[in-house]
Amino acid sequence: MNKAYHEKVINDVIEQLKNLDIDAYVIITSEGSDQITSFIPGVGTVGSGAFIFTKNGEKYGISSKIDAQDIEESGLFDEVIKYDSYDESVSSLMKKLAPKRVALNYSEKDPFCDGLTMGRYQKFIESLGGEVSFEEVSSDCFIPRVRENNPL
Fold first, then answer.
1. What is the rounded CA–CA span in Å between residue 87 and residue 29?
2. pLDDT, average across residues 29-39
3. DSSP per residue, 35-92
């Protein structure tokens, strides 16, 4: 992993969130199910995991205790939350952040921005228990620009 490169990518994501007034970008993944994780943040999970970046510059990783070491050692996150219950950890953080606009990895136009499966999406929404509501937007409104600014 190239830490400097991934820090630059994450900082570019945060700048795009600010420009588009998107409160949070949420990447939900498991076992490499979302190809975006090799780009943002540059580390992945084996178990269920989430990476959350906010327009205020906060960077969170949520992972199993087993996956946490790589995420912590990356040095890319302000906080790495090691869960006993994935759903509760994600729900608790989303309640704390209370975002009004959230970018998710789904897209009709860009396969790179379309890694969120319907099952994972439904589980994510159900975990919020109706206590957090927000406008959803596709990450394809900024990820192509981030990729253009940060070629591999």
1. 13
2. 85
3. GGGGTTTS---SSEEEEEEETTS-EEEEEETTTHHHHHHHT--SEEEEESSHHHHHHH
User: Cα–Cα distances in Å, from 1 out to 5, 37, 48, 70, 71?
Assistant: 9, 12, 21, 10, 11
Q: Is 145 exposed, middle or buried (0-12, 13-18, 19+ CB in 10 A)?
A: middle
Taking the C-alpha atoms of residue 21 and residue 17, their distance in angstroms, rounded to an integer, is 6
Is the pTM for the entire model greater than 0.70? yes
- Whether residue 32 is predicted with pLDDT greater than 90 in this model: the reply is no
pLDDT over 90 (residue 104): yes
